[in-house]
Structures are given as structure tokens and as C-alpha cells.
Design goal:
single chain, mainly alpha, Receptor-associated Protein, 18 helices, 81% helix
Length: 453
């Protein structure tokens, strides 16, 4: 309503104030007549807005902290690359490997180093790091030249569109058939981190068994070497002193004493070495030729399985390697025939390799594995029985894995037993050698004392 027609100014103002008050009262009454649920919804929206605001504030703070951390790491990396460490690493690389590895055969890396690199690769991929970045990091941090070069080339090939298994096939010296088969199965199934983890554990177990056997052989080799050194020193420096005493007495020397004196004189003469070195080289070449003959290798492996001292250790170590490899390949989805072919290559004894070949033929004919194993005398009964249980229950991989665990423990026990037996035997061996030399040297003195008496 318009009040401009009222001439009295005071009255017009009063009327306008009254109209304003009526509008305010009408608005309040309209608000009070609204639904209560709308008020609750309005309050909830206000609360959620406050919470979202606080959450955005915390997220911004975290993003700011992460951004600062990344910037610091980038700065540290930049300082590292621009500092003196790069030059030192470049010099080290030049000293340790040639500029180009094309046309050169890579040396097989130690099993332990390859296991560590594989474990690192699996951990990096599992945490979400891209495969290319993980391969580059391992190639930069690993100390083995073969692993450095192969992992860098694998990363380069993957960046060009090739698969990891295709790149592994180019370096059979570094990655054996077992490694390549597991990686291929993992890529096909989309379980590469899990497969690499299984591969690392397999390599660690193989390295453990190999290390235990080497430690068992290290003690007798060290004692034998020390004995030869001691005998050589006695021949050069101790026996000549006794020879001078016997020459002054003019007495006849016993046969064994005269033999040692002749050997000592030969070792002190230079013409002896002109004859001994070519003869030793010829004997070494003949040994290499004979030892590589299939018949000799077969006889050697068969002899190891008949000697009481080495029978248990060789049998258990071969079965442990075979079981662990077959279990890993079968769990990864590799076909059983291909898994047997690959697992056979981890066996060093040719008797067991021939047995696995027969098993392979029997499976192709439709027979189960345990029947082929039951026919072999060198295969323990428990080994064949566990295969039979695994095939009947459909849990072959688990049974083979248990066999691998059992035989690895047995290898450790056999190594300890063999070491405990070898220690007194080697002590007796050294005592006999030194005792024969001492008796041969003092025997003429006893004869001289009897003559004087």
C-alpha cells in the first residue's frame, strides 16, 4: 500500500513504520509454520559443512607436508647427482665392467645375490612401485655386474613393449629354466609379486643346501691343504738338518728314511721343477678329459650312492632340491611334465636324473608318479608314499612342500653328523703323516744309539 498521498509528514512516517512491523510479524509466523524435519535437516547440513571444512583443512595440511617431503627428497637427489659421489660411482663402474657387454658372456651370479635381488623386486612391486622403476633401482644398487647389466637391459626391453619373461630368455646364464618358468607363470596368472617371492624363497633354500654341503667339505679340504704345506716345509727345512748328521756318522739309512731324504733332495733341485710342472699339467689335462667321460661320471655318481659316508647326504640333498623346485613350479601353475623337466636340472647326481626321466615317460603313458618312484631302490619309501598321498588327495603341491622341508632339515642333520665324523678322521690323517716323517727321521738315531751301547 502506498502512503505518498498523505500530506502530513509525521503521519506518513507512522503508517510506513506500522507496515514494516506487519511484514516482520508475517515472516515470523510463516517460519514457525514450516515442517520441523526441515529444521533438523538444515542443522545437519550445517554440522556436515563444518566437519567437511575441518576435514579439508586436515587434508590440505597432509598434502602440504607430503609436498614438502617430496621436494626435500628431490633436492637431496639433485645434490647427490651433482656432488662427488657420481664421479666415484662412475669410476667404480668403469673398473668393474666394460663399457659394452654386447657379445660377451655373462657370469652366473651367486645364488644368494640373485635371491636378494628377486626378494627386493617382489617387495617393490607389492608396495605399488612400477616394474620399470623397481628394475632400475635394483640395477643401480646391486653390486654384482651380471645382475646390474641384466636387470637394466630387462627394464629397457619392457619399456619397448616386451614382456619380462621374453627378456629373461635372453640371459640364460643369469636366470635358469626354473626362474624363467616361474616368472612366465606369474605373468600369465597376474601374480608376479607372489611368484617372485616364491622364487626368492626357492633360491634361498637352494643356496642354504649348497652352503651346508660346501661347509661340510671345507674342513677336510683345509686340513688336507695344511697337511701338504706342513709336509713340504719339513721336507725343505727339517730333513736336511738330519741328513747332515747322518752323513757325518756314515751309518746306513733305513729304506723309509732314505726315501724321504731322496724326496727332500729332489724338492731342493731346480731341474725337478722343470720336469714336474709339465708332468703335472699333463696329468691335469688327462684328469679333465677322463672326468668328463659319461661312463666315468656315471661310475662316480653311483659310487657316491654306495659309500656309507656320502650316501645319505647325496640322497637327501638331491631329493630336497628336487622337491622344493617341483613344489614351487607346481604351485605357480606350471604343467607337471614341464615342472619335472625343469626340476630334474637342479639334481647334480645322474642316477636321480635318470629316475626323473623314467617318471616323465611313465606320466606320459598315463601312470601316476608314485608307481614310477616305487620301482627305484635309491628312492626312500616315505618319498614315494608322500607322492601317492598327494596324488590321491589332490594336494600334491602341499605334500611336496612338506617333503622339501623335511629333507632340508635332514640335510642339515647329515652335514652336522658328517662334520663330527670328519674332524677326528682328519686329525688321525694329519697325525699319521707327521708321525711317519718323525719316525723315519729318528729311526737311524735309535740304530746309532744301539751300536754305541
Amino acid at each position: 500500500m502506498d502512503y505518498r498521498y498523505i500530506q502530513n509528514r509525521k503521519l506518513r512516517r507512522l503508517m510506513e513504520k506500522a507496515r514494516y512491523k506487519r511484514k516482520v510479524i508475517d515472516n515470523k509466523s510463516n517460519q514457525s509454520s514450516e515442517n520441523p524435519n526441515q529444521k533438523i535437516q538444515q542443522k545437519m547440513q550445517n554440522v556436515m559443512a563444518v566437519k567437511n571444512k575441518a576435514l579439508r583443512k586436515r587434508q590440505k595440511s597432509k598434502i602440504s607436508t607430503l609436498k614438502t617431503y617430496v621436494e626435500l627428497k628431490i633436492q637431496e637427489r639433485k645434490e647427490y647427482l651433482e656432488g662427488d659421489m657420481t664421479a666415484l660411482r662412475a669410476k667404480k663402474d668403469k673398473l668393474r665392467k666394460p663399457k659394452s657387454m654386447e657379445g660377451r658372456r655373462l657370469k652366473p651370479p651367486p645364488i644368494k645375490d640373485l635371491a636378494v635381488a628377486t626378494k627386493q623386486l617382489a617387495s617393490m612391486i607389492r608396495t605399488g612401485l612400477p616394474l620399470l622403476e623397481a628394475l632400475k633401482i635394483i640395477s643401480e644398487t646391486n653390486e654384482n655386474t651380471s645382475i646390474q647389466y641384466s636387470f637394466r637391459e630387462i627394464a629397457l626391453g619392457i619399456s619397448k613393449g616386451l614382456t619380462m619373461s621374453e627378456m629373461l630368455d635372453k640371459y640364460p646364464e643369469v636366470f635358469n629354466d626354473m626362474y624363467r618358468a616361474l616368472v612366465s607363470a606369474g605373468e600369465t596368472a597376474g601374480l608376479l609379486p607372489e611368484t617372485l617371492d616364491r622364487q626368492a624363497k626357492l633360491l634361498e633354500s637352494l643356496a642354504k643346501i649348497k652352503g651346508q654341503i660346501q661347509s661340510a667339505m671345507a674342513y677336510p679340504i683345509a686340513i688336507a691343504t695344511l697337511t701338504i704345506v706342513v709336509v713340504f716345509i719339513m721336507m725343505l727345512f727339517v730333513i736336511p738338518i738330519f741328513v747332515d748328521i747322518y752323513d757325518q756318522s756314515g751309518a746306513n739309512l733305513p729304506f723309509i728314511t732314505q726315501l724321504l731324504v731322496d724326496i727332500s733332495n729332489q724338492l731342493k733341485s731346480l731341474p725337478f721343477y722343470f720336469k714336474a710342472v709339465p708332468t703335472g699339467f699333463a696329468v691335469y689335462c688327462l684328469y679333465r678329459y677322463v672326468s668328463n667321460r659319461p661312463s666315468v661320471l656315471w661310475w662316480y655318481d653311483k659310487t657316491l650312492l654306495t659309500l656309507p659316508l656320502t650316501k645319505d647326504l647325496v640322497t637327501k640333498s638331491c631329493l630336497a632340491n628336487f622337491s622344493r623346485t617341483l613344489s614351487s613350479l607346481n604351485s605357480a601353475g606350471v604343467p607337471i611334465l614341464e615342472a619335472l623337466t625343469i626340476a630334474k636340472r637342479t639334481i647334480s647326481n645322474r642316477i636321480f636324473s635318470r629316475i626323473i626321466e623314467k617318471v616323465h615317460i611313465d606320466i606320459q603313458s598315463g601312470n601316476p608318479i608314485h608307481k614310477a618312484l616305487d620301482q627305484e631302490q635309491v628312492i626312500p619309501v616315505m618319498f614315494a608314499s608322500m607322492f601317492r598321498i598327494g596324488e590321491e588327495t589332490g594336494e600334491l603341491s602341499e605334500m611336496i612342500s612338506k617333503l622339501a622341508d623335511f629333507y632340508e632339515d635332514e640335510v642339515s642333520a647329515s652335514v652336522k653328523a658328517l662334520t663330527s665324523i670328519m674332524e677326528p678322521l682328519m686329525i688321525i690323517f694329519v697325525a699319521v703323516f707327521v708321525g711317519v716323517i718323525l719316525i723315519a727321521m729318528y729311526l737311524p738315531m735309535f740304530s746309532m744309539m744301539q751300536t754305541v751301547g
